[in-house]
């Protein structure tokens, strides 16, 4: 079925929910009211929970071109719509579409093994022990920071800029800005460096200095790779994730609004 459909009543909905009681209660009510389509035959996946559940749903559907509509049955619910159980198919049919492109993380570990992972919010490098991390940062093959001493460093997408990135005092990035946020976590040297905004096309390379003494882990959303010596990150434009938002509560509006909160 093409989206949006000409006849909303024909939308086949597949519901997924977190284990939280409010999400499970909503799952029971909605499946009784609208039915439960097979996820592989559905036109839309409806996620019930918080941002964590939405991230899991997005990751599990990375290789499918299926829209995802979330309703908040968790705490913050930044990536989800408000919960209402009436006229759900009509709401989904009139929703605005937002396409997100994930970050692809490629890691090399101290033992020479490699691993790839995808991040919708951010890729984070974090010290594994009491020793601060020492990192070298290159952008598009040009060394920009020969040595950064810190607890860690992250690169966030616009959708992820209001999550861990914001907690680390990084900037909130509008969806249409075409940039990624590079934000240090508790930087010690250089003291005045507070991060950078990079074009979304940038290829970012992190090299871990003194990796034996100062081990570092790399995390793409919730996929962790420990004892890395080199991490490469860039946006993967070959993958697109479609999120659906109510017209009066779009993701772009939420990101803008977040910048003016006290």
From TrEMBL:
One of its GO terms (molecular function) is ATP binding. Gene3D superfamilies: Probable inorganic polyphosphate/atp-NAD kinase, domain 1, Probable inorganic polyphosphate/atp-NAD kinase, domain 2. Keywords: ATP-binding, Cytoplasm, Kinase, NAD, NADP, Nucleotide-binding, Transferase. Pfam families: NAD_kinase, NAD_kinase_C. Its main location: cytoplasm. It catalyses: NAD(+) + ATP = ADP + NADP(+) + H(+). InterPro entries: ATP-NAD_kinase_N, ATP-NAD_kinase_PpnK-typ_C, NAD/diacylglycerol_kinase_sf, NADK. Its cofactor is a divalent metal cation. Its EC number is 2.7.1.23. Belongs to the NAD kinase family. Involved in the regulation of the intracellular balance of NAD and NADP, and is a key enzyme in the biosynthesis of NADP. Catalyzes specifically the phosphorylation on 2'-hydroxyl of the adenosine moiety of NAD to yield NADP. HAMAP family: NAD_kinase (MF_00361). This is NAD kinase.
